[in-house]
């Protein structure tokens, strides 16, 4: 391209950059097409053909472009001509408007005279309106009387139509006066139409009486009820219209009769039946009251659902309103009843009624009420807090009842102790009484009754039952102690004291075995540690009283030990065996675990009493011969006692008489110099033996010098003993008497 062409193209490129871009794109597309067509040498032969075809195509495109541009130019020319014509017409209109404006300004003075004519016309129109309504105004009192007659005849729709006409006439007059600011005249109009107020009150009274009897009318005939609803809806429409206009609100509007309808219906539902002052707080009276409520509510809701729903518009939601009203009224009513001092039966009835009966198919879940009646969305009849509070009150009442019954059972139990016959026996011959059966049956019944309400109350009653059982065991133990004191004063009373103690042990075992069955959850029947401890204390106290009785019979015999007569072959231990055997026969009337325990404790008592007697410093062996006699006697007595207890069923490994055999070895030792080794073995086996015990045994030998005694005691001091776990102490229960001084000074001041 030459320089002139570039200079000529430059302004055009600057003015039409899109054209340059389009040209470049076209050249690029042509080049791409040519390279695709003529990429082989043999294709160049058709170059002339392609050139002629493209020339024809360009000519066709150029002719179409020229035609399009020509049509656009013709359109532009026509548009310009139309704009020129419109401008001329606008100018002509402006000229005409200016002429009209000047004409109006010239005739403005003539319009002032028409103002007076306009005022006269308005006044004439008003007077014409007044003339038209004068017959109605003059007949107002007559209409009032006729309307009152219609009301007395219960022709409510006709009466209400005339009442609406009277109100409409009055409201129109008052509205006109209000618009003209004639407030003083409104008082006169209201006075003239004062009869409307009486008619309104009479009609309203009849309407509310009908609404108040709606449940009865629903069964007998709903005509009056439907009429009342139609009148209420008419008044609601009038209220809505006046409130929407909001220019003038006549006196007594809005009446709000639909809202009053709901209030009257709710007052009818929450009538005298929900008054707590008329409710008997005792169980039977409260049960009758709740049963009557259940029957009436179901019956009335069926009337509402089947009959009254069809008598009112759907937007009244009368079934939902009645259901909610009954629910709320019952909630308040139950709260009022709970403010009374109810007995346990009353509290149980309320809990059962609120938590189970209310939602059951016998009441709100009645098949005739479902699915339209649904109280699940209204919340619980008693709040969780109130339920918990009521449950606690119920538990308190049950606790007082249980305490009274247990105290009475305890009194009857100990009254039977003083009978002239032994306690009852079961089929196996074991002594027993009705006490555990009565106590467990009473507790179990209360727990089972509580389970009818819910798990929470059952758990509360279960915890209370365990607490009361523990307290009862404490009182039973105190009664045993008191009875034991009275028996010690006169052992002939009660006559069968031992038998009743044994029966008490069997009773305690029965209670211990039955406690776990009280637990509501069969998978977790653990007895609390405190209750287990109370049962153990009760068992130990009964065993202690039995052992004290055995001790009283053994003490006269033990007081004769040791003595010269005893050494020479007395039948003292034989008598002791007879006493033990007598008590063992009594012990056989208790079940095996207690029987074994009594045998072990009796054997320990005998062994400790035998050892205590030996340590009373009553005798000292004077020679080796006496020591031999003492060893023989100890062997014979201990063997006889051991064989007795083995024959009674107590294994030798469970006996404490082995301590007497060990003590015999100390006395039989020939060489006192070896005592330190023998004593070391003795205290190793019986670590609760003290220096005083060993010293007393050494005194019993009669041949231990001070030096040997000192060596023995020194050895004991060097080898202090610790009681192993599970060790049954025997010597720690034996008190050693203080040795008497060889001489004493006379009373008086020292020189």
From TrEMBL:
One of its GO terms (molecular function) is SNARE binding. One of its GO terms (biological process) is exocytosis. Its main location: cytoplasm. InterPro entries: EXOC3/Sec6, EXOC3/Sec6_C. It comes from the Eukaryota. Belongs to the SEC6 family. This is Exocyst complex component 3-like protein. It comes from Manacus vitellinus.
């Amino acid at each position: 391209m030459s320089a002139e062409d570039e200079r000529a193209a430059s302004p055009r490129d600057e003015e039409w950059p899109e054209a340059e871009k389009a040209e470049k794109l076209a050249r690029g597309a042509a080049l791409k097409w040519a390279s695709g067509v003529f990429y082989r040498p043999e294709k160049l032969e058709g170059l002339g053909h392609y050139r002629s075809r493209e020339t024809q195509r360009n000519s066709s495109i150029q002719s179409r472009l020229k035609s399009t541009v020509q049509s656009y130019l013709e359109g532009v020319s026509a548009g310009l001509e139309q704009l020129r014509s419109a401008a001329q017409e606008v100018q002509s209109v402006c000229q005409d408007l200016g002429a009209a404006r000047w004409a109006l300004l010239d005739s403005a003075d003539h319009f002032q005279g028409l103002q007076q004519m306009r005022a006269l016309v308005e006044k004439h129109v008003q007077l014409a309106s007044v003339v038209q309504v004068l017959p109605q105004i003059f007949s107002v009192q007559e209409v009032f009387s006729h309307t009152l007659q219609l009301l007395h005849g219960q022709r409510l729709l006709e009466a209400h139509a005339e009442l609406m006409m009277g109100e409409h006439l009055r409201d129109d007059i008052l509205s006109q006066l209000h618009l003209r600011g004639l407030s003083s005249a409104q008082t006169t109009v209201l006075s003239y139409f004062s009869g409307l107020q009486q008619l309104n009150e009479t009609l309203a009274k009849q309407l509310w009486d009908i609404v108040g009897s709606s449940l009865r009318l629903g069964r007998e005939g709903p005509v009056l009820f439907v009429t009342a609803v139609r009148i209420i809806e008419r008044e609601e429409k009038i209220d809505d219209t006046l409130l929407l206009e909001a220019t003038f609100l006549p006196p007594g509007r809005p009446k709000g009769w639909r809202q009053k309808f709901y209030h009257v219906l709710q007052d009818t539902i929450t009538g005298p039946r929900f008054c707590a002052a008329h409710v008997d707080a005792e169980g039977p009276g409260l049960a009758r009251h709740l049963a009557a409520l259940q029957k009436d509510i179901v019956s009335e809701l069926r009337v509402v659902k089947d009959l009254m729903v069809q008598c009112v518009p759907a937007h009244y939601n009368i079934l939902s309103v009645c259901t909610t009203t009954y629910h709320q009224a019952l909630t308040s009513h139950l709260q009022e009843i709970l403010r009374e001092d109810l007995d346990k039966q009353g509290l149980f009835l309320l809990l059962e009624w609120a938590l189970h009966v209310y939602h059951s198919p016998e009441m709100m879940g009645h098949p005739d009420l479902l699915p339209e009646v649904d109280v699940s969305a209204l919340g619980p009849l008693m709040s969780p807090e109130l339920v918990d509070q009521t449950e606690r009150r119920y538990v308190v009442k049950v606790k007082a009842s249980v305490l009274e019954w247990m105290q009475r059972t305890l009194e009857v139990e100990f009254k039977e102790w003083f009978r002239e016959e032994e306690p009852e026996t079961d089929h196996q011959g074991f002594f027993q009484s009705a006490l555990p059966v009565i106590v467990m049956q009473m507790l179990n019944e209360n727990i089972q009754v509580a389970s009818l309400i819910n798990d929470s109350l059952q758990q509360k009653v279960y915890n209370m039952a365990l607490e009361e059982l523990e307290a009862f065991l404490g009182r039973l133990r105190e009664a045993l102690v008191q009875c034991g004191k009275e028996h010690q004063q006169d052992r002939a009373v009660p006559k069968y004291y031992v038998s009743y103690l044994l029966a008490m042990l069997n009773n305690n075992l029965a209670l211990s075995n039955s406690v776990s069955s009280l637990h509501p959850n069969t998978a977790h029947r653990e007895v609390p540690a405190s209750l287990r401890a109370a049962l153990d204390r009760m068992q130990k106290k009964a065993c202690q009283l039995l052992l004290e009785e055995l001790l009283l019979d053994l003490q006269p015999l033990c007081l004769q030990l040791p003595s010269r007569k005893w050494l020479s072959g007395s039948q003292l231990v034989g008598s002791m065996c007879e006493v033990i055997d007598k008590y063992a026969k009594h012990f056989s009337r208790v079940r095996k675990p207690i029987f074994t325990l009594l045998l072990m404790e009796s054997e320990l008592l005998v062994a400790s009493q035998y050892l205590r007697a030996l340590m009373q410093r009553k005798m000292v062996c004077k020679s080796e011969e006496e020591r031999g006699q003492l060893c023989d006697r100890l062997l014979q007595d201990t063997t006889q006692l051991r064989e007795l207890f083995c024959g009674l069923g107590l294994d030798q490994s469970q006996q404490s008489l082995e301590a007497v055999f060990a003590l015999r070895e100390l006395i039989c030792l020939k060489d006192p110099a070896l005592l330190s080794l023998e004593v070391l073995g003795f205290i190793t086996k019986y670590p609760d033996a003290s220096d005083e015990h060993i010293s007393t045994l050494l005194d019993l030998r009669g041949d231990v010098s001070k030096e040997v005694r000192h060596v023995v005691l020194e050895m004991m001091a060097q080898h202090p003993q610790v009681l192993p776990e599970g060790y049954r102490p025997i010597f720690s229960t034996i008190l050693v008497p203080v040795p008497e001084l060889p001489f004493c000074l006379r009373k008086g001041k020292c020189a």
